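Holo prediction — phosphoric acid mono(formamide)ester.
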Amino acid sequence: MAVEFPHRHLLEIRPLSEEDIWTILKTARNLKEVLKRPIPKVPTLRGKVVANLFFEPSTRTRLSFERAAKTLSAEVLNFSARGSSLEKGENLLDTVKNVEALGADLFVLRHPASGAPHFIARHVKGGVINAGDGFHEHPTQALLDLLTVLEAKGGFRGLKVAIIGDIRHSRVAHSDILAFRKMGAEVFVSGPGTLLPPEREALGARVCYRLESALESAEVVIALRVQKERHGRALFPGFHEYARYFGLTRKNLELTSPTAILMHPGPINWGVELAGELMDFPRQVILDQVENGVAVRMALLLLLLKSGETAP
Ligand code: CP
């Protein structure tokens, strides 16, 4: 099978065509089969080195990139800011250039500064995957969200997707809005007014100041964590008020389609954006998202590292 993908990096959703996204989703669906084998390992990326560079905390993204790379037999270099020479004053570019000198072919970068992966992409020979940059984008999260919706709903066109929470500061919201709209879904966003973008900056999503308008007949509901660490000042009275007016409950989810699925990128603040009673909500697919994260990241590693070659 020849691997064809017309990109060297994955920095954001915008440059991906609908066809590129279908390529990623179909590749991920094929690779899911590998993860279910008794010995989930293939030699596809033997000899390649993937560097996971995390300058911000992560559980799902970091571990799933590691699992994805190891399943494809790549070597993995894991870097966390804490305990590194950053603490002795080394800067981002020097850090990355040193990891490149250690043999990295591809860099997975999470960084608190929006645009950091774009900057690094201009200075390294290998590809760069944005694993979340400031409040700009988290494109691999959007792609795994698409895969999860595809599996649950069979397609995207005309689907009502409601994204609830801190839209303004969420890189997941930005990538999800762009990705779901590109695939033909209708996106509605809702949350406290101070956490919503103005309509003209909502990337084509419909802004709803009333939660009910966003939830009504939605087929997909994505709850987001309040990004307190990115606010700088108090933007709403407190978590108690947030939960009261914008927290999702069994009651307000009754407004959605009876077949609606509930998603969350994690980490979840139970009792804030999701009521504790939703832990056993039958149509929540939050761990499916995590599982799909491995397959989507395997697909991206394969497409970016093997494009132009024949995959075994
Ligand atoms: N969804 C997500 O990015 O989770 P982590 O911060 O744990 O990677």
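READOUT: The chain has ten helices and nine strands.
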